[in-house]
Write a structure and sequence with these properties.
This protein has about 400 residues and is of the alpha/beta class. It has helices at about 25-40, 60-70, 90-100, 110-125, 140-160, 175-190, 220-225, 230-235, 245-255, 275-285, 290-300, 310-335, 340-350, 355-365, 370-380, 395-405; strands at about 45-50, 75, 80, 160-165, 190-195, 200-205, 210-215, 235-240, 260-265, 270-275, 310, 385, 395.
């Protein structure tokens, strides 16, 4: 038996960096060719905010970046996931204390840093409530920013980058906590420190601190609109879209040739292949969704035991996953306000060539095209579900397939 649950390389689990990686080359190249080289060189760079609907692989993307960073010797935090209603300052304070340990802070006889760590430990216990009690010293954001600056200075000495990843940021519902967190991180990103260069020349440089925030699209409304230009100046936002079919096909090419090597049940090695028509069917079924790509691959792997994954096995595996695929898209649609969903449903009822704002607005019951404008804009720029071209089109291809066809049923 070549294929088993133990050697299945596909994993649709949340936040897991899958073995079979597809796409996101632009975001990965941003880290490899822009962000990290500039930070190492002391040049200023904004933090990165990666947003998108569920299943687009936001957290997995940043965990892959963090894994590459750690492999290069950089200092990385674990994924700091923010549960709904929790205090993000406590969570970030705990992660920074761990980073301070990795950075070797504080040195012996460095009383100032010891006192700073004690203040951060207090934030890790009390969080944002610390700022509400008189006599407790500096606000949490000042303390966290100061420690992150010290970690950044240590990173300069070691020639590494410090990477901080805060996930599920849309769950930060306390405005005070969100404001303090963004200010703390932003202040560290813009901090300049003086270092000694060759020949004793002293110069200013930015700290090698990278901050990634990941979450659902509505976070930008709360952080961008309410925090104004400060957030935009300090964080660059990317809204993820579906992955191109060419990228998905390229990710599966290794199964066509030379094959995916696995340990078999006899203690040896086997090479699992996938036929080209199986690749084409799998790519077509998942509609560019990273979650569905992993789900389809996982179930196709389980649909047989021999060394070749066929189109019939992809189809059989997908039939077992259809309910989960439907639920995935229904969760996305269920998150939308009523008018946004009505807009999408009206757009889906129209032939592709007739999907103009005027026709969609009339079909959805808006009083005019102008009245539908804000809804269409949110679906485009905030959610990344539609593209306001001429005519309008769907950017979220799984939503389009669900609303306009029998998908996820196999043809």
């Amino acid at each position: 038996m070549a294929r088993s649950a133990i050697n299945n390389p596909f994993n649709p689990g949340s936040d897991i960096v899958p073995q079979v990686w597809a796409g996101r080359t632009r975001q990965l190249d941003d880290w490899r060719s822009v962000l990290r080289p500039r930070l190492v060189s002391g040049l200023p760079e904004r933090g990165r905010t990666v947003l998108g609907e569920p299943g687009l692989g936001k957290s997995a993307l940043v965990r892959k970046i963090a894994s590459e960073a750690a492999g290069a010797g950089d200092w990385t935090t674990p994924q700091i996931r923010v549960p709904l209603g929790s205090d993000p300052l406590k969570l970030v304070a705990g992660a920074l204390l761990d980073l301070a340990h990795v950075a070797g802070l504080p040195p012996r006889r460095e009383r100032r840093l010891q006192e700073l760590l004690s203040r951060v430990e207090a934030v890790a216990v009390s969080g944002v409530s610390l700022s509400l009690r008189a006599g407790d010293g500096a606000d949490p954001h000042l303390v966290l920013s100061e420690l992150l600056v010290e970690i950044g200075r240590a990173a300069v000495q070691r020639g590494v980058v410090c990477l901080l990843h805060v996930d599920e940021v849309q769950n930060i519902t306390d405005e005070r906590a969100l404001s303090q967190l963004l200010i703390a991180l932003g202040d560290a990103l813009t901090h300049r420190t003086v270092v000694d260069g060759p020949g004793g020349v002293r110069f200013e440089r930015s700290l090698p601190v990278a901050v990634y925030l990941t979450g659902l699209p509505e976070f930008e409304d709360r952080a961008g609109a309410r925090k104004g230009a400060t957030f935009a100046r300090r964080f660059a936002t990317t809204v993820l879209e579906a992955i191109d079919d060419d990228d998905l096909t390229a990710a599966l090419q290794v199964f066509v040739s030379p094959g995916w090597e696995v340990a078999d049940d006899r203690g040896g090695l086997a090479t699992v292949h996938m036929t080209q028509d199986a690749v084409a069917l799998l790519v077509d079924l998942c509609r560019g969704e990273p979650f569905l790509f992993q789900l389809a691959g996982q179930q196709a792997w389980y649909a047989g035991e021999d060394v070749t994954i066929t189109a019939a096995q992809v189809e059989a595996g997908w039939r077992t996953a259809q309910r989960e695929a439907s639920a995935h898209v229904e969760r996305i649609l269920g998150r939308l306000p009523q008018r946004e969903r009505e807009f999408l449903e009206a757009m889906a009822r129209l032939p592709p060539a007739d999907r103009t704002l005027t026709r969609i607005a009339a079909t959805a019951g808006f009083t005019s095209a102008a009245a539908a404008g804000p809804t269409s804009q949110r679906l485009d720029t905030v959610r990344g579900v539609v593209s306001r071209g001429r005519p309008y089109s769907f950017r979220h291809r799984a939503v389009e397939a669900y609303l306009t066809s029998d998908w996820p049923a196999v043809p």
